[in-house]
Every structure is written in C-alpha cells, then in structure tokens.
Design brief:
The complex is a heterodimer of chains A (133) and B (314). Chain A has one domain: Rossmann fold (3-Layer(aba) Sandwich), CATH 3.40.50.280. In chain A, helix 1 crosses helix 5 (119-131). In chain A, strands 2-1-3-4-5 form a 5-stranded parallel beta sheet, sandwiched between helices. Chain A is α/β, with parallel strands linked by helices and 133 residues long. Helix content of chain A is 43%, strand content 20%. Chain B has 314 residues and is of the alpha/beta class. Chain B folds into 3 domains: 1-37, no CATH class; 40-254, P-loop containing nucleotide triphosphate hydrolases (Rossmann fold); 270-313, no CATH class. Chain B has helices at residues 2-8, 12-24, 27-36, 56-69, 124-133, 153-156, 171-175, 196-210, 237-254, 256-284, 287-298, 304-313; strands spanning 44-50, 74-80, 89-91, 106-112, 138-142, 159-164, 185-188, 226-228. A 7-stranded parallel beta sheet of chain B has the order 4-2-5-1-6-7-8, with helices on both faces. In chain B, helix 8 (196-210) links the parallel strand 7 and strand 8. In chain B, helix 1 packs across helix 2 (12-24) and helix 4 (56-69) crosses helix 9. Chain B is globular and about 60 Å long. In chain B, 40% of the residues are buried. Strand 2 (35-38) of chain A pairs parallel with strand 3 of chain B.
C-alpha cells in the first residue's frame, strides 16, 4: 500500500554551472527512498519557490558554488515565508564560508553541508528532522 | 473539507496539498475526492507518451506554451519511475519545463510511479481530477518513458499523443502491439535528424494497414495524423495542437465522446473495486495459514493455484 514519502526539491540557484554535487546528493536521497525533484541549473529564487509549492516538498536543498548565497538565500527564505511554506526544511550545500553560517541559520537554513560531507550524513539529517514532525 | 473549498478558488497551495494527500492514500483522500468530484469533467485531458529520450518533456513544454498563447490554463502531471530497489525516485521532467515558470496559468506536478507498471502512478487519474476541479482547462499528462505495454494513459486521457524519434528501431518495432495502437496522434520529434522521413513513412504505412481493421482505436473513422516536430525549437508544435483540437471536435460530433467517457468510468470503477477487494483480502489474511501454504508449495505438495483457492475461500 502507498506510504508517505519524503519529497525533496534539489535546486541550483544563481549562475554557476556546476551541478555535480547537486546530482550526487539527488541520487543519494533517491537511494535512501526519497522522491527527489531535480530542476536543473540557473534557477531564480522565484522558480525555486514556485516548484517547492507545486511539488509540495518537505525539504528544499540548495546547492551554490558562486558565493552569491548571501543575496540569494535571504530572497528564497522570504519567498518561502510569503507563500506559507515556512514549514519546509531548507538545507544548503556547496561553498559557504563559516562566517556566513550564523546568518544563514538565522534565515531558517537548518542544515549546511560543505564540500566533503558524506551523503549518509545528509540523509540522516533529513530523516531525523522530518521524523520530528 | 477546507482544502477542497480553497482548491475551488484556485489556491495553489491547496492544489499541491490535495495531490499529496491523494498520493499517500490516507482516509482523507477518499473524502477529498468525493468533495471535489462534482467539480470535475470540465478539462480536456491530453496524454503524451513514448520511449525514453524521444523528447516528451520538451514537447509538453512547447504544447503548454501554445495553449497559453490561446489563453487556456494548463495543468501538467509528469510521471517518472520509482526505483524498485530503494522506493525512491528522481523526478527530472521540470528541467525541460523551465520556460513555464512564473506563469500563474500553469501548474506542474511531478509524480513517481510508486510501483505501478502501466506508465502512470496509481493516483495519477485522481491527481488529474484535482487540477480539473481547480479549473485548469487543458491537463497534459506525461507518462514514464514507455515502451510497448505502458498503455494506461489511453484510459486516463481524452487523447493520446505517441512521440517517436528517428533511429529508435525499424518498423517491425511499430508493428508490435502496444503504444503504437493507442495513438490518436503520432509525433515524430527531432525531425531535423536523419531518418525522420523514414520514421514518418513507416508510421503512415502501418496506419494504411490498420485503418480498416483498427481494433484498439475506439473511433475507427479517425485516422491518427503523423506530425513532425522539432520540439526543442518549438517547430511544428502548433500543428500538433491543431490536430488535438480536430480530434476533440471529431469526438464531439461523432458522439464517441460520451461512449468513451462511459467506458473510461466503467474501467475506473472496476479497477477501484479490484484494488479495494485485494486490499481488504490481504488485511484479513491469516498470515500463519499463508506461510504454511507457501511451505507446502515449496515441497511440491500443493500448486500455487490450489493454494490461492484455499485462501480465497477463507
């Protein structure tokens, strides 16, 4: 019989063209039994939030390597709130300097995973956070 | 039910939540479907199927753009396969539909098959009802990359577009039963590639042979047109929409629309009964008896059919 699946949107905001990391994570989450919606490169904050809303995801994973997270993430966080999606778990991966982490946490980005993070760690984090609900 | 009320006003969050509820098949699902059903039956449902890599998602993207230019709102359900090993799925059809974002007249939802084998998820037809009740005028359903037997789409849609591309095999492939038999329209996509004319000609030849004795087509007087497109550049897609409109007019004028609708509902009802009976049977199943019968079958003391008869008699 059908069961509840964790649905995850993996998105690449901004202009950098490197999505290998995003694809590796998408694949690992699929292998952990989640339904992963992958939207491809160069997504605007509006596109990401629209997809999160239509797909009714539990988790949004943002991958960014361009350094533009300080401008893009606040925009995404605000749009999620405006659309009533405050309950969505937001994760970030890619190149994010340590000094930016507190500000991102403040915005509601719950998990931040830099280069070298094992995919098991990400899977476990998502399962635990979603399990709390 | 509050969500259904919100859905009827076009609330996009309510649409998304309701599709999830229906996919997860909880107690709320049946209640929600009952509440929204009176508001369905307005949308034109267009199925798009074909082998992996023929360009289905790209074609759907372009079809939606043509419909939007004609001021029709468009709902899209794109189905991708669930992994039989992990139960997870990678849903990537939105990658080809990025042109459609930011348009309030479009709603796209990705669905995983969750174990269904007919090219759609078990709850795809019900997700279509959600978009229908929400007022989307054209609903495009894209199947998983389908080969020869994923023909459920023909039961769920008013019209089925089968997408082919050059170089996928000789015409014998098309002679085989299956998805070529459910086509109301053929699209030969990637028509700028070598072999496109040959593919189109092979399809025409099959249609010549089939036309007088087409068992699967429920409207024998409709000969499926073969449209050539280069979906990546939007070329030829307007003609596909024209063909869809002609088919809809043909169904209305020939009186086949009501007949097909009745047949579709009969099939749907039968399939729900089958599912419910199976579910309630397994809920009441005596697991100990089941296991001991399996042991007997392994020892060749009993055959599986006889064991099933014993269990079904309870």
């Amino acid at each position: 019989m059908p069961e509840k699946k964790i649905r995850v949107l993996i998105a690449k905001p901004g202009l950098d063209g490197h999505d290998r990391g995003a694809k590796v994570v998408a694949r690992a989450l699929r292998d952990a039994g989640m339904e992963v919606i992958y939207t491809g490169l160069r997504q605007t904050p509006e596109m990401i939030v629209e997809a999160a809303l239509q797909e009714d995801v539990d988790v949004v994973g943002l991958s960014i390597l361009s350094g533009a997270h300080t401008t893009l993430f606040p925009r995404i966080a605000n749009l999620l709130k405006d659309n009533g999606l405050d309950d969505v778990l937001v994760l970030a991966g890619g190149i994010i300097p340590d000094e930016d982490v507190p500000a991102l946490n403040e915005l509601g980005v719950r998990g931040i995973f830099g280069p070298g993070t094992s995919t098991e760690k990400i899977v476990k984090f998502i399962e635990e956070e979603i399990g709390k609900r | 039910m509050k969500l259904v009320e919100r859905l009827l006003t076009g609330d996009r969050r309510a649409i998304a939540r309701l599709i999830t509820i229906i996919e997860n098949d909880g107690a709320e699902a049946q209640e929600a479907l009952a509440a929204l059903y009176p508001h369905t039956g307005q949308a034109h449902i267009v199925g798009v199927t074909g082998a992996p890599g023929t360009g289905k998602s790209t074609l759907v993207n372009e079809l939606a753009k043509v419909y939007r230019k004609r001021d029709r709102t468009v709902g899209i359900i794109a189905v991708d396969p669930t992994s039989p090993f992990s139960g997870g799925a990678l849903l990537g059809d939105r990658i080809r539909m990025r042109d459609l974002s930011g348009d309030a007249g479009i709603f796209i939802r990705s669905m995983a098959t969750r174990g269904s084998l007919g090219g759609l998820a078990r709850s795809t037809a019900d997700a279509v009802k959600v978009l229908d009740a929400a007022g989307y005028q054209t609903i495009i359903v894209e199947t998983v990359g389908a080969g020869q037997s994923e023909v459920d789409i023909a039961k769920a849609a008013h019209i089925t577009i089968v997408v082919e591309a050059p170089g996928l095999g000789d015409e014998i492939q098309a002679f085989k039963a299956g998805i070529t038999e459910i086509a109301d329209i053929f699209v030969v996509n990637k028509a700028d590639r070598e072999g496109a004319d040959r593919t189109a000609m092979a399809l025409q030849m099959i249609l010549d042979l089939d036309h007088s004795s087409h068992l699967s087509s429920q409207t024998p007087e409709w000969r499926p047109p073969v449209c050539k497109t280069i979906a990546l550049h939007g070329e030829g897609v307007g003609a596909v929409v024209e063909a869809v409109e002609e088919h809809a007019a043909h169904l209305r004028e020939s009186g086949n629309l009501q007949r097909r609708e009745r047949e579709r509902i009969e099939r749907e009802l039968r399939s729900i009964i089958t599912q419910e009976m199976t579910r309630s049977f397994f809920e009441r199943l005596d697991e100990a008896q089941f296991d001991s019968l399996v042991d007997s079958i392994i020892r060749r003391e009993l055959d599986p059919h006889s064991a099933a008869t014993i269990l079904l008699k309870g």
